[in-house]
């Protein structure tokens, strides 16, 4: 197997520090907007923690930092409790599922110095992914309705699409950002409707972030492809 090539990056410590800073700023901004708009009457510490860690983890995903996985696991555990409190059973089940399965992504990404390169989804796999997501959606919607879940159809769409998006992200497929965009649209509507305006507001940022993440990963793929081409041909890169 050929040695995986990666672009040079700033230190891991700096990216983590930036993720914490961005998480604090965006979480604070979310609450300021929520308070001024009358969406929030009191502070929910669990929601604050879930939102903050989610912002931090998402930033590290864009930066292709493996540290996004342990932070993401903490965030999904917090969201599991938050969604259970608000009757969003499919979202709660989803986050409970994601918390331990993020280990898969941690393994797949490998260490930052030899991180898995960004690639495209092969066309032959698209029907398979869509079929599995469709079955997941139908099953989640049925279970959510049976147990009296809130917003069963959109909540189940979030579940099915998130599982697909996370699998693509774990394997560093560029198209994961497209699927995340779909997830974010449904999440904004669902969470705003069920009394979680700050979470919904967060997903507005996430929707914008899908465009930024796509561009950053596309740039990373181009650089890695160039390095791989030069390694294959033995032609040295220009200084």
Q: Share of helix among residues?
A: over 70%
Q: What Rg is obtained from the alpha carbons, in whole angstroms?
A: 19 Å
Largest beta-sheet details: none
Q: How many domain units?
A: 1
Task: Calculate the mean pLDDT score and round it.
Answer: 83
Question: What is the overall number of helices?
Answer: 8
From the spread of the alpha carbons, the general shape counts as globular
The helix-and-strand class reads mainly alpha
* Helix/strand order: HHHHHHHH
Quantity of strands, as a count:
0
Give start-end ranges of low-pLDDT stretches. Answer: 1-8
Q: What is the rounded distance between the termini?
A: 27 Å
What share of the residues does DSSP label as strand, in percent? under 5%
What secondary-structure arrangement, pairings included, does this model have?
Blueprint: H1 12-37, H2 45-62, H3 68-85, H4 89-109, H5 126-146, H6 152-170, H7 176-193, H8 197-233
């Amino acid at each position: 197997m050929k040695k995986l090539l990666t672009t040079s990056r700033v230190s891991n410590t700096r990216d983590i520090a930036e993720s914490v800073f961005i998480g604090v700023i965006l979480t604070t901004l979310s609450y300021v907007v929520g308070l001024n708009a009358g969406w929030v009457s009191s502070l929910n510490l669990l929601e604050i923690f879930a939102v903050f860690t989610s912002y931090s983890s998402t930033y590290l995903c864009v930066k292709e930092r493996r540290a996004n996985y342990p932070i993401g696991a903490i965030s999904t555990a917090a969201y599991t409790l938050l969604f259970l409190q608000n009757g969003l059973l499919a979202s709660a089940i989803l986050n409970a599922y994601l918390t331990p399965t993020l280990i898969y992504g941690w393994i797949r990404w490998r260490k930052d110095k030899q991180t898995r390169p960004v690639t495209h989804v092969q066309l032959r796999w698209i029907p398979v992914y869509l079929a599995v997501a469709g079955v997941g959606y139908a099953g989640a919607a049925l279970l959510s309705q049976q147990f009296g879940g809130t917003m069963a159809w959109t909540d189940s769409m979030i579940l099915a699409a998130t599982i697909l998006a996370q699998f693509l992200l774990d394997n560093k497929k560029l198209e994961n950002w497209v699927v995340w965009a779909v997830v974010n649209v449904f999440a904004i509507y669902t969470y705003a409707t069920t009394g979680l305006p700050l979470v919904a507001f967060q997903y507005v940022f996430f929707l914008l972030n899908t465009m930024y993440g796509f561009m950053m990963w596309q740039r990373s793929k181009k650089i890695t492809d160039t390095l791989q081409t030069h390694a294959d041909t033995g032609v040295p890169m220009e200084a």
